[in-house]
Amino acid sequence: MATIPIQQSRSTFGVLQRICDVVVIGSALYLSQWLTGQGISDRTSLAIAVSVALFFIVSEASTLYRLDQTRSANTDLGLILGNWLGTVLLLSSLAFFGRQGDYFARTSVLGWIVLTGAMLGLSRMLLRIALEFLIARGVGQRRCAIAGLNALGLQLHQNARDNPACGLKMVGFYDDRSKERWLSQVENESKYLGRLEQLVACAKAGEIDTVFVTLPMRAESRIRWLLDQLSDTTVSAYIVPDFFVFELLHSRWNTIGGLPAVSVFETPLYGVDGWTKRLFDVTAASVGLLFISPIMLVCAGLVKISSPGPVFFRQRRYGLDGREIWVWKFRSMRTCDNGSTVAQATQSDPRITRMGAILRRTSLDELPQLFNVLDGSMSLVGPRPHASAHNEHYRKLIRGYMLRHKVKPGITGLAQVEGYRGETETLDKMQKRIDFDHRYIQQWSLWLDIKILLRTLLVVFKQENAY
Q1: Cβ contacts of residue 20 below 8 Å, gap of 6+?
Q2: Contact between 467 and 360 (Cβ < 8 Å)
């Protein structure tokens, strides 16, 4: 039997966004050069081509063009302006090292940067307004029915409502089960339209454009019957697998020789995404060490003269894929626990030195982990690494605990900026931390990393749960 490859659908709106962005970046440079009296040449076209390529790379890394995430207009505007700023920084680096910065007049370049940012934001808002206008009038919408009044079908219905750019108008649900079974899933029965036979009849009458099958995969015979009946119509049919029964970790589909496979547990950092994050880590850590090396020297000196013992504390922790790594910190305690039993630091912990308390409160004790970032054992952002003893303890108590090691551990993470920094004296607090670690892996993007780093500065300034 021949295998049929499954193709990923592409959004028309996403294509329009890309076209608009290309037009804006190019026309803004031409306009800026015309306003400043600088002539247009082949280098202008080259600058546009390079800037567009860099903008697309940054935008793909930050998920700007993905429609599977519901974003407000303000968030979308901030994201596109942040992407343009990142593009400008990359262009500046290329111009500096390629010695091309002298060709364009500074007034022309500055005007281009400002004009592009303003026009990108304006074009994106106009696109959103136009899309909402068209959708409100039913343009491009498909009439969709859901076969299966269950939790998965209700989630699909809600997702379609929350993401109008999909252009799906959900007319209602069809289900063969008795009313008592499906009524427990909904507050009222207004969206229930009938049994599956009635769905087929509506499809044959041309009253429905698309059918989403959310029946459980164990109902194979019903699914086969329904698809066989729908094959005698012109509707588009989709099967939505009930993978919600699993805890999906950055799920993605792949094909193996044409045979589709959907991941349940997977890392988001494959291919370009992995290289992008690594490049960001190395660049940011190198720049950070360059600027804060005097602070680290002062901290090292104060640790040395404030209490007997080594300047640095090295502890075994779990890294990527559960492999053991050595994590570096400035020593903040009188003891260097690193055995099979490691007690978490508590408020007023007698083991913490006077200088160590200051370092921990300001998170300065974590600065040596920048060397872990450079050697590749850690990332700037990711799930915080726990002592190996704590891993062995909590992996027996929390379902999916070890999945947090599908990415490199980080100096800071989503859990820390959401209030779960420091001691986890109860199992519920550790569970919350793991939930945020999983959410980080599921939703990872370079833009998310940048937001977490910025929020970390606020958390350190507030000094909450730091002891």
Answers
A1: 123, 124, 127
A2: yes
- Which ranges constitute the DSSP H helices of 62-177? 73-97, 106-136, 151-162
Question: What would the pLDDT profile of 55-65 be if each residue is shown by its tens digit?
Answer: 888 887 777 77
Residue 176: pLDDT above 50?
A: yes
Both tokens of 30, joined, read: 């031409």
pLDDT band at 189 (very low <50, low <70, confident <90, very high): low
Quickly tell me which residue has 């087929």 as its tokens. Answer: 200
Which residues 6+ apart lie within 8 Å of 87 measured at CB? 51, 54, 55, 58
State phi, psi for 322 to the nearest 5 degrees.
75, 10
Tell me the average pLDDT across 420-429. Answer: 78
CB atoms closer than 10 angstroms to residue 91: 19
238 is written with which tokens?
């989709």
Using CA atoms of 33, 38, 41, 45 in order, give the dihedral in degrees to the nearest 10.
Answer: -20
Domain with CATH 3.40.50.720 in the chain: 142-245
Question: What are 138-171's pLDDT values in tens digits?
Answer: 666 788 999 988 888 888 888 887 777 677 888 8
DSSP label at 334?
Answer: S
What CATH homologous superfamily does 142-245 map to?
NAD(P)-binding Rossmann-like Domain (3.40.50.720)
Angle at 110 between CA 106 and CA 116, to 5 degrees: 145
Measured distance CA(262)–CA(284) in Å, rounded: 34
208 CB-near residues (< 8 Å, 6+ apart): 143, 144, 145, 171, 199, 202, 235
pLDDT (0 to 100) of residue 261: 66
Distance separating alpha carbons of residues 195 and 206, to the nearest angstrom: 17
Phi, psi of 316 (to 5 degrees): -75, 130
Question: Pick the residue with more confidence: 356 or 349?
Answer: 356
Say how far residue 112 (Cα) sits from the centre of its chain: 30
> What are the residues facing 242 on neighbouring strands?
none
